[in-house]
Amino acid sequence: MKNHSRSTRALTTLLTVIALSACAPEPDPVAPGERIATAVSRESAANVPVADQRELTRAQLSLGFSLGAAALPAERNAMISPWSIHTALTMAHLGARGATAEGLGSVLRTTAMGERALDAYNAVDQALRARRTHGVILRSANAVFAPRGLTFEQPFVDGLAAHFPVGLSVLDFAARPEESRLAINAWVSAVTEEKIPELFGAGVIHRDTRLVLVNATYFYGPWKNAFEAANTRPSSFVLRDGTTVQLPKMNRVLSARAAMADGWRAIEIPYANESLSMVVIVPSSGDVASFERALEEGRWTDVTRGLEGLSPSQLQLSLPKFRFTHQAQLASRLAEMGAGAAFSSDADFSGISTSSPMRIERVVHSTFVAVDEKGTEAAAATGITFGPTSIAPLRQFDVDRPFVFVIRDVPTGAPLFIGHVVDPRVG
């Protein structure tokens, strides 16, 4: 991965947003602020090896599951976006140097890839932009907001433009922090179709803020085979404590790949363009937290290989409707995972700017998801502030206990969202 930066101390804000909504988006909203010029254009992704793209998406999935209970607490419904978090940290890594870069690289799982990781990200991002078919919407927008008067390293500015792509916009954080906050929030809200109306609360953007990096991705996925609302009816669901409750489940016969092995069963539900899908995995024990740890350790490969090795078959699917929001604080967990230097007073982001040292203060991740008869709607926002055994097909598939779900891009393997549902009744 390219190292285009470093810094310490002072407050910079980097955030990432991923959202899914039922309304078709307009062209990406223009980020507010004056633009810092660069002559660099986005690099072509035509010759990036598929193996590198797969290696990158495996790294994203590994990061998502490695965040563990800090991001996906077992006692409640939870979801994160590995794509969002990884993108945000990758933009930060672009400006990191020394031990700070090494720590972030280890967390990103891309150290061995070196500069190939940026090329792979560029290729996967461009592939995702081509998924707007059959009513599926998936777009990714980037913006970088900088304070007036801060001098940036040109390789950092050029690197953002070449790989993400993103322009660097100037706002007056020092004199107008609240106005700047509202402008950034308005841009994020517009990109996410108002699913993230206020990413930054009052006081988060202030006169010492040094940078705001934003990735916003918007997705709406109608099912390939929609459920009839008339077929949604109460059905049994076993909660974590063993209690059986009645709750609304959608029902239909569909052609899908479903598999089972010791301790789990899984189904892949395609969206309308068939390039994107939701994989629903039901652990036999109902212990989603333990199962998610096993997914990181290799069971995800078992699940996907099991599914991909089967032909679709006709089966009766019974799936709960669910809708919830979730927020996680990730800074301490990321520090524990090896990125501690980035959060310390010794942080080195001098590849971003040598005139204003900075360190990461907090990493906040908020998500929203709704699954109904028509399809899936979801949103995620990541805010990073810088400052001073044998597989067998199934004929019936009843999601009747806590389950894990992964919304993924099938051709590249990119994990857009990972979550679990322990009680579909809870929003």
List keywords for this structure.
427 residues, alpha+beta, Antithrombin, Chain I, domain 2, Alpha-1-antitrypsin, domain 1, 8-stranded mixed β-sheet, 33% strand, disordered N terminus
Q: Outline of this structure?
A:
Helix content is 26%, strand content 33%.
Q: Could you characterize the architecture of this molecule?
A:
With 427 residues, the chain is α+β, with helices and mostly antiparallel strands. The chain has two domains: 11-222 and 324-386, Antithrombin, subunit I, domain 2 (Antithrombin, Chain I, domain 2), CATH 3.30.497; 229-321 and 390-421, Roll (Alpha-1-antitrypsin, domain 1). 26% of the residues lie in helices and 33% in strands. It has nine helices and 18 strands. The chain has helices at 50-66, 68-71, 82-93, 98-108, 116-129, 154-163, 177-191, 288-308, 331-339, and strands spanning 11-19, 34-36, 78-80, 137-147, 168-171, 209-222, 233-238, 244-261, 264-270, 276-283, 313-320, 322-329, 360-371, 375-386, 392-393, 396-398, 403-409, 415-421. The strands form two sheets. Strands 3, 7, 8, 9, 10, 11, 15, 16, 17 and 18 form a ten-stranded mixed β-sheet that branches. Strands 1, 2, 4, 5, 6, 12, 13 and 14 form an eight-stranded mixed β-sheet that branches. Helix 1 (50-66) packs antiparallel against helix 8 (288-308). The chain is globular and about 65 Å long. The two termini are 39 Å apart.
